[in-house]
Amino acid sequence: MGGKSYYCDYCCCFMKNDLNVRKLHNSGISHTAAKATYMRQFEDPRKILAAERKKKPCKRYFAGYCKFQLFCNFRHYSDKQMKQLEKIVNQLKKNRLKKKNNPQQAKHNLPASLQPPNLSKLMQSNWHLSWG
């Protein structure tokens, strides 16, 4: 196995480098919650906002500590954080509308070899020349 200890990136803790110890740790609720918290940053903000709007604020969390973390049935976002999340979602909607309204903009970001051929330049070519 190599080394004397194993470091869990999600939980920020060291443990004995043994298969059974790691399996036990990875199946624990604290590791599962820490991993879910980490993976939450890669979720779609619209999905998060829709789920959090349905929840009521968590009294335990805002009083100091909620042991359920992301598995809590109540919201752990403050009103200020909810407004920031709404701004992010609105900005994403605006960006998508701009892309839908201007499909040519996406083609300009491509390298020259991947852009569609310009037909006006192609028609100006002299195809009657002989090669070699």
Automatic annotation (TrEMBL):
ZnF (C3H1-type) residues: 52-79
A molecular function GO annotation: zinc ion binding
GO biological process: alternative mRNA splicing, via spliceosome
Domain C3H1-type positions: 52-79
GO cellular component, one term: U11/U12 snRNP
Protein name: GH11400
Ranges for region Disordered: 98-119
InterPro entries, alphabetized: U1-CZ_Znf_C2H2 (IPR013085), Znf_C2H2_sf (IPR036236), Znf_CCCH (IPR000571)
Keywords, sorted A to Z: Metal-binding, Zinc, Zinc-finger
